[in-house]
Amino acid sequence: MVDEQSPNPGHDETIVPVKPGLKGLQPVVSKFNSETAISTPTLVITLGALALLVVGVFFVLPRWVEKQEPLQPLVEIVVPEFPDQSEEPSFTSEELEALRQEAEALLTKLLTQQGQLDGQSVVEWGGENFEQYEMLAREGDDSYLRNAFYDAIPAYSKTLEIGDILLRRSIDLIAAALSAGAEALDAGNATVAIEQFELVLGIEGENLMAQTSLIRAQQLPEVLSLMQAGEELRRAADYEAAAKKYREALALDGFWQPARTALEAVNAIISDRRFDTLMSQGLGALMEGAYSDAYDVFAQALVVRPDSSDALNSLIQAEQGQKLDEIILTEARALAFETRELWEMAVRLYTEMLETDNTLEFAQQGLLRARDRADLDLKLVNLMENPNLLFGDQVLRDAEVLLVEASSIQQPGLRLTSQINDLGRLVHIASTPVPVEIYSDEQTEVTVYRVGRLGRFLLKQLALRPGNYTVIGSRIGYVDVRHELQVLPGKDVSPIRVECMESIR
Q1: Domain residue spans in the chain?
Q2: CA-based angle 299:302:306, to the nearest 5?
Q3: Residue 485, pLDDT above cutoff 60
Q4: Distance (Å, whole) CA 263 – CA 245
Q5: Of residues 326, 329, 336, the one with CA closest to residue 357
Q6: In the CATH scheme, what is the code of domain 433-497?
Q7: Rounded to whole angstroms, how far apart are CA atoms 36 and 207?
Q8: 3-state SS record for 409-425
Q9: Is residue 85 classed as helix, strand or coil in its secondary structure?
Q10: What is the pLDDT of residues 431-478, one digit of tens each?
Q11: Which DSSP symbol is given to 60?
């Protein structure tokens, strides 16, 4: 039973939702590049050494000089002057240009990174790390604008490091939120699930899993309501109505496993009840000798429960009783189709009978007879509907053979007799030559395709069977000529002239 208030008791407390905001990233940023700045310890040691040197010059050296003989003139000791450490370091124009280019390259990367983070709504979950990221970026921008590129470079570099950490952590955050949202969804906690999936979409708006899961979470209350209604109907033994509720729940969320499990359970109950009803109806029809009705009912019972031996045995009994009735009826119908020269229908009927019982001799002989006549009928109909096919030599010869075959059939019937007469007339027309006259100039070689080479002449009279012919004229040094000649049965053909008159340049 599904409880709307607590869909999965005892499971909610195991869900650890992911909270936005990241802590713990505290980068230390130096104002100067470590390669170019003077470190503090080095400066202290240097100043200390200089102080000792001064003390020696003013106090120790005079006393030591008093004891020495003046062998050579004294040399003046000059204390070197050091630049003021508060002043900005000086660079040559070439060094400054190199620093500017490096700062610009880092800024370009930073702008791209900022676009990625903005697209992931980092302000919603970045926390102190993002605040530090923005602070360092501003420091870098300020240094860049006042041309202090030596300060902008370390600021930009550290900003990029923090940005990379934020981008990597966004991936972990997405994975954790998806996992927590899935657990909340399975537990029936729509509020937590929605919160987690919205968090993911705030970071990665195109995340397909989060989009799909968010829709499921938003529909979860309605799904749980339908499940509750289905359980109440199931307890009331209204299985059809309960199945409808479960199907509605699955229509809203096809991944909701409790609905699928419940639907399978009630469908099994419905299936058992339908099987019992069908078996009762089939046995009643079998006892009354209504074999066809019984066969249909038992076939439906086998669909409901394919592994039922009771249904299968009952179906065989109905089939045996049905076969005796069908054989007599089918033979009479098939012979009626043959008498009416409906050969395709006879073929279909004999084939169906042999699929039922391939030992039926009358069906075997009838199928061979009906197929031969159906094939003959198809050929005759094709030639009569397309008489132009007879203009081809091979088709005309085949038609003549077909006429002999058809005329040899005993008791041909009205349809075949009419077909023999019609095709015979068409064959006669297609075989009757038509006179054709071809004129030339005794210089042109004339060839008629399907007839042969005619040579050179002034006039050639031919007798051509109906059909389409191509006449070609050729002469050395001249362009070939071509004529298409159509010979129709019973129609005069106008004389044609074939001469090559255009010389080749």
Answers
A1: 276-349, 350-431, 433-497
A2: 150
A3: yes
A4: 9
A5: 326
A6: 2.60.40.1120
A7: 46
A8: CCCCHHHHHHHHHHHHH
A9: coil
A10: 888 899 999 999 999 999 888 999 999 999 998 888 888 999 999 999
A11: I
